[in-house]
Amino acid sequence: MKASEAPAPAMTDASIDPREVALFGGIAAEWWDPKGSSRLLHAINPARLAYIRGQALDHFGRDERARAPFGGLRALDVGCGGGLLCEPLARMGFAVTGLDAAPENVAVATRHAADMGLAIDYRAGSAEALAEAMPGGFHLITCLEVVEHVADLGAFLGALERLLAPGGLLVFSTPNRTPQSYAVLIVGAERVLKTIPEGAHDWNKFLTPDELTAALRTAGLSVRHVTGLGYALSRGFAIGGDTSINYIGAATRA
Prior knowledge:
Helix 6 links the parallel strand 4 and strand 5. It is globular and about 45 Å long. It is of the alpha/beta class and 254 residues long. Helix content is 36%, strand content 23%.
């Protein structure tokens, strides 16, 4: 299996922020280290995957008892990093494409998938470029903790809408812009606990659920569900009603 031989992303793509690409490409080697700079993603992944699986089972009418219920469906993970989400999606039966603006991340993801015996199509580039190449190409699109990092939100969401197949499903998650998220993610996680690389987030780019719902609507996507994604000492990360720090949701074409 090889990574796509497409050229590295052009920095003129509207949604790509070169500073963000450099930051996350610089920590590419740590993606699969559960004690490294991506340890928070390792911890939160089971809750996110459970939500994605539940929404997809309901949306596509698949059998929840099946080991790989999503055979015949194509999934795209935008901002895939080292492939932490792509690999379990592939095990669920999806034919998976992983897209990331940082070639370093794509290289790490490709090597790890090969080691796991998984056939995942990893590509370095922008959502806009992929939308030109594969319009309507994906039944499921996941975009988790990505919208807060893009340079042009409208261009990015418009590309996701073009990539989504008719009858497809988009699952998104992102931090909320609240005093609680500033305290937990910026002060706590970045500056004190160092569970997230310092400077990884700009709190001013966080979106409230209403703001993101409106932006998705402008792009031609209709939000059908939003819920909180939070942490409790008794159960770890879990899906729940409190959206004050982070939230996850699902959308379809309007």
